[in-house]
Amino acid sequence: MKGDAPINCSEFILVTDPDAHGDITAQGGSSQSESLECLAMTLTGLSPLSIGHTGSVWAVKILPEQGLMLTGSADKTIKLWKAGRCERTFTGHEDCVRGFAVVNDQEFLSCSNDSSIRRWLVTGECLEVYYGHTNFIYTLAVFPNGQDFISAGEDRSLRIWKKGECCQTLRLPAQSVWCCCILDNGDVVAGASDGVIRVFTESEDRMASAEDLQAFEDELSKATISSKTGELGDIKIEELPGREHLLEPGTREGQTRLIKDGEKVEAFQWSISDGRWIKIGDVVGSSGGTQNTSGKVLYEGKEFDFVFTIDVNEGGPSLKLPYNVTDDPWLTAHNFLQKNDLSPMFLDQVANFIIENTKGVTLGSETGHSDPFTGANRYVPSVAEGGSPAAADPFTGSSAYFSNAHHSTSTQSKNIYFPKTDAVTFDQANTTQILAKMKELNRGAPDDHRLTDDAIQKLEKLLSAVTGLSHAETPAAEQIDLLWKTTYWPEDIVFPALDILRLAIRHPVVNEQLCHEDVRVQFCNHLLNLMNPQGKAANQMLVLRTLCNCFAAKRGQELLMSLRETVMSRAMELKGVCNKNVHIALATLVLNFAGSLYPVPDLEGKAQCLSVASMLLETVQDKEAVFRLLVALGTTVTNDATAKGLARSLGVKSQIAKYASVSDPAKLAECCRLLLDEL
Fold first, then answer.
1. Phi, psi values for residue 206, rounded to 5°
2. 597 vs 52, 438, 517, 612, CA distance in Å?
3. Model confidence over 40-78: pLDDT tens digits?
């Protein structure tokens, strides 16, 4: 989840009257003492078997359930303890775990030196990852609603998170913000390294006077910011714009802009509520020196010789690629792809990008670097020719799915969303790049899997036939058998074959051959094995998309309907995977099952669809995935009183209602309203 997003939320303003809150230090002191006493008793009773961390323990939190405790460590893990014994280990953070906040009796938040915040289930699943901070995060606190929260850290900021997005960034005139909490009246308190406790409020009655607010802003503007902080990147002073650049409005809350004023560099932050740029300090060490004269670049609390900015998708968030000249470029590329949940298909491009751009290059001196993801050899599974990114929606190429029907022009909106009975498929592809990647990986494939040139040509003809590029061609049985054998390539290189299978299975001839009753069990079992929750995210996504595309023809639909219970149960094992594209494909699979069940009096099948959709709504955060799940619910309950009653008993109305006020995309709120009316 990207920080600093333009979310509507009330703004927190500085408070200067301490009497409005009483003794902040003493507030809640009794319960805190009891918690510490309880913790001490638990720790003294630990047995040798309970010693689980291999590094210093930085964070401890007692959970609501009696006897449960969380610990976070420099070994990058979180451990759940019960009665003095380690019950479970959580992995995901890439640096020290610094703090916790309890969301409810089943969920908690963690923060880390890796600049991320994670939401977890106590059962071990990571529900969401939030990004916004640019340095160590030390502390968290949750609002009484159990969903929104605040965080603070080494980047001098206190951040307000609402509906999963960072809606406000409060900069403080201090090096670090060490701690924060939320008072009973909803005000936010932050303690910083300058020895000052500051209180921020949404209530106009408690806001500081205009003079005090101006004094705080003046104090903030006099602060100094190192040019080597991760939030500012590398600075070359002669290339910075002047103050006229401040006439242009910012694009998001907390956006930072650097301005050259003579020989000085100033940092400004955009405030959506004020509609203006606010100075947050002067940048020091911004002489534009080279790598040799300016030292290393600080990123996420560590020093690097280079920190490249990589734009994966046009208009999407940029990613940082840190690198030291002593590092192995291939290992660095591998770690970068894994950290950002990108496909291993980019390994060559990223590694070569590092090699080419670290040959004596001075930081910030080049503006023409070729991004490894947007060069001529770019290939992303399911990217359309013409450049639509993989994250774009497969139906429209622009991150949105709409029904083929048009909106009604009457005063009463027509339901264009459900029931959705025709299959939703993933059709877009860049066939040239798929084949290029297959040929590339084939050269390094094990001997018993390597394809001959003739075999590659047969797959090329098959791909042309199933994508309509060759209208005269019909897929041959030999070509289909060859494709099926290629899907048994090793897990780390099989994704181009799965991408071809995803496209081919829509064709009636391929669908008939692979989903025929003689081979369908083998076909389905192989795909489900490739969908292993511990496997590659690219494979998981492509298998789910292949299953969705099976519904495009009669034989595939019959196969999946006959194995519905098994397929949906295995697919649900991926609900804890923190990947947007996996969640969208998973939601689409549920939607296609719902569409196939619509005309059938199969209460058991509809009950499974309702149950799965309800469970996924508790997990997925992506709005497109949520929208498809809502359409699946609507399709399942339409014209079926029994299904409606079952949906109500599952509590889906409350799950639906929380999206009714979402303004973007508008289709989400409209679908919610129609679904609530249906129920």
1. -105, 0
2. 49, 37, 21, 14
3. 333 333 433 345 888 889 999 999 887 899 999 988 999
Q: Single out the residue of 491, 492, 486, 446 nearest to residue 463, CA to CA.
A: 486
DSSP state of 665: S
Q: Among residues 313, 450, 459, 294, which one has the least CA distance to residue 378?
A: 313
Q: Are 419 and 634 in contact (CB under 8 A)?
A: yes
Counted residue by residue, the chain has a size of: 679
Q: Alpha-carbon distance 587 to 568, whole Å?
A: 11
Q: Which residue has the higher pLDDT, 535 or 360?
A: 535
Q: What is the largest CA-CA distance in the chain?
A: 82
Q: For position 29, what pLDDT does the model report? A: 35
* Confidence band for 442, pLDDT divided at 50, 70 and 90: very high
Would you state the structure tokens that stand for residue 103, as one six-digit string? 């969301």
The dihedral of CA 93, 94, 96, 98: what is its sign? negative
d(CA 77, CA 499) in angstroms, rounded, equals: 35
> Is the pLDDT at 92 greater than 80, yes or no?
yes
**Confidence (pTM):** 0.47
User: What is the rounded CA–CA span in Å between residue 277 and residue 244?
Assistant: 12
Helices within 276-388 (DSSP H only): 291-294, 329-339, 347-357
What are phi and psi for residue 226, nearest 5 degrees?
Answer: -70, 140
Cα(320)–Cα(309) distance, integer angstroms: 5
Contacts of 568 (CB under 8 A, 6+ apart): 589, 590, 593, 608, 609, 612
pLDDT tens digit string along 361-413?
333 333 333 333 333 334 445 433 333 333 333 233 333 333 333 333 333 45
Q: How far apart are CA 31 and CA 484, in angstroms?
A: 62
